Amino acid sequence: MKVFVGCSSRNEIPKEFLNLALQVGELLKEEEVIIGGTKFGMMGNVVNNIPLKQVKQIILKDYVKEGMTFQNSYQICNSSFERLNEIWKQADVLLILPGGTGTLGEIFFFLEENRMNLEKKKLILFNDQDYYDEIITFIEKLKQLNFVNEAILDGLNLVFSLEELMNCLERIKHEIF
C-alpha cells in the first residue's frame, strides 16, 4: 500500500509531535511511503525507520538544490499544484499528521479532489492532541451554511491515537486489496 504522509518539515516544533512522527513511521515500516517535502522535522522522523527503498519524495525543485532530499528516489515538481497532483495520482492512502500551512493546503486539496473525482482516496486525519479541532469545526460551519455539502467528507477518517491509526490502516488495506 502506498501511503502519503503529510506533516511538518520543521525541526523547531514541540518534541511530542516529532516523537509522534517516529511512532507513525514504525507503524508504516512495511508500506511504501510518499512524502511531499524535505528530510527534516516530522517528515524525516516518519521515514527514519523505513528502508529508503520504500520511500519516495515528491518535491519542489528548490528542495533538491538545497540538499533536502534522501539518497533514494525523488520526483521533482515545478509547482505545488503539480506536486499535489502527483501525490494524488500515486498514493493509495493520504495520511495527514500535524503540520503547517503546506499541510493545511494538502488537507483541502485532498478533500476537494475526493469530492470532485470519481477516483476516491482514503484520507486519514490524525487529530493528535486535538490539533485539527478548529479545522474540523470550520468544515462543519461550511456544511451548516451550505457552502459545501456532505460529500466534502467522503473518504475522511478521523483518528486520535496510534491504536486508532493502526486499526484504520488495517481496515483500509483490506478494503483496497
Describe the structure.
The protein is α/β, with parallel strands linked by helices. The protein has one domain: Rossmann fold. 44% of the residues lie in helices and 19% in strands. It contains seven helices and seven strands. A seven-stranded parallel beta sheet has the order 4-3-2-1-5-6-7, with helices on both faces. Strand 2, helix 2 and strand 3 form a beta-alpha-beta unit.
| Count, helices | 7
CATH architecture: 3-Layer(aba) Sandwich
Number of strands: 7
Gross morphology? globular
Identify the strand order in the major beta sheet: 4-3-2-1-5-6-7
The CATH class is Alpha Beta
What's the CATH topology name? Rossmann fold
Distance separating the two termini? 9 Å
Strand proportion: 15-25%
Mean pLDDT: 91
Low-confidence stretches: none
| Sequence of secondary-structure elements | EHEHEHEHEHEHEH
The biggest sheet amounts to: 7 strands, parallel
